[in-house]
Specification:
The protein is of the alpha/beta class. Helices cover about 35% and strands about 10% of the residues. The chain contains 12 helices and 8 strands. The protein has a single domain (about 20-225, about 250-300), classed as Aldolase class I (TIM Barrel, Alpha-Beta Barrel), CATH 3.20.20.70. It starts with a helix and ends in a 20-residue tail after the last helix.
Length: about 325
């Protein structure tokens, strides 16, 4: 595989950081699921959890920022962190939008019964994992029983107004491929999802986000066991899209780990590629703006963000044409 940075040079691309707009916080690796594609290697037995002092330091820095408008909470299952509600409440008090990257099944864990109502109260945007509208495909990737729980959770969210027109309560779904291939065009797949989920289950949502599986951690090991790692790497490399490369999310986002280290993105975080190529934590800076001059660190998994229509935590990077009306 050609090193990713050489591909950037070959295409005369220089990717620089823009003003930071998104603060993504990985609150830990504890999760009620252990999904096949998980680049975090999250699961029920993980003990990495963000402490209160770390959460409080992040809110001090957020208050000083004039450019960060969105706080993006991820995990693991972020709701399982005891400081999740503090981060939501403080971020909203500071006037920021908040995203909860939710696996849906967490609502049925002990102590999480009120979480959907809490999310509504603070008007948190929910980005929910649902890798397919087929039960078979979902459970192949996420485990037995997950699909039915996910449908129950989506119906509950709809009842609360999420995904409904005019409520302002945003419910987006996430599609991840169930194997070593690229997502289909986002607009077309969104149309299929909306049709199938509405007809089969009466479920509504706002948008579908297609996210390419990164060949790191658990998915890397899965591909290796099947002898498909090189094939998948070649697929990502040969589908490199310069237009997508110019829109990568690391230009306006930083990622904070559960222990306060700073990274360009969640994928670099899981690969232990530190921002600026050197150890830096939230206790070593006074302003997030200090990071604006740091070069972005690239690695070969960056081909995953730049293949085809591109991929980010916000879905495809290159808009595909809207699906034709039925």
């Amino acid at each position: 595989m050609i090193p990713f940075e050489e591909t950037l040079k070959k295409n005369r691309l220089e990717i620089r950081r823009k003003p930071l707009e998104i603060l993504q916080i990985n609150v830990g690796k504890l999760c009620d699921l252990a999904c096949l594609h998980c680049h975090v290697e999250a699961g029920p037995k993980r003990t990495e959890i963000m402490e209160r002092r770390t959460a409080e330091r992040l809110m001090v820095l957020l208050k000083k920022s004039h450019t960060i408008q969105t706080v993006d909470l991820t995990g693991g299952a972020p709701e399982l962190n005891p400081n999740f509600r503090y981060l939501v409440e403080e971020s909203r008090r500071l006037g920021r939008d908040v995203i909860d990257r939710c696996n849906l099944t967490v609502f049925f864990q002990k102590g999480q019964e009120e979480t959907p109502f809490f999310l509504k109260q603070y008007r948190v945007q929910i980005v929910a994992s649902l890798p397919c509208y087929s039960k078979e495909n979902v459970e192949a990737q996420r485990g037995r029983g997950v699909f039915d729980k996910s449908i129950r959770a989506l119906r509950l969210l709809n009842e609360l107004g999420y995904g409904k027109k005019g409520t302002g309560l945003i419910l987006d779904l996430v599609y991840n491929p169930v194997g070593p291939f690229l997502p289909p065009p986002q607009a077309e797949l969104e149309s299929d999802y909306k049709k199938e989920l509405k007809e089969l289950f009466g479920i509504e949502f706002n948008h579908l986000l297609t996210i390419t599986n990164m060949p790191i951690k658990r998915f890397h090991d899965y591909l290796g066991r099947r002898g498909e790692l090189k094939q998948y790497g070649d697929l990502l490399e040969t589908h490199f899209n310069p237009e997508a490369a110019g829109r990568v999310m690391c230009r306006n986002l930083i990622s904070i780990s559960w222990d306060g280290k700073i990274y360009d993105c969640d994928f670099n975080q899981m690969s232990e590629i530190l921002l600026g190529g050197k150890r830096r934590t939230i206790w070593e800076i006074e302003l997030f703006d200090e990071l604006a001059s740091e070069p972005i660190q690239f690695a070969n998994h960056c081909y995953g963000c730049t293949a085809g229509d591109g991929s980010s935590c916000g879905g495809a990077l290159v808009p595909s044409p809207p699906a034709p009306l039925p």
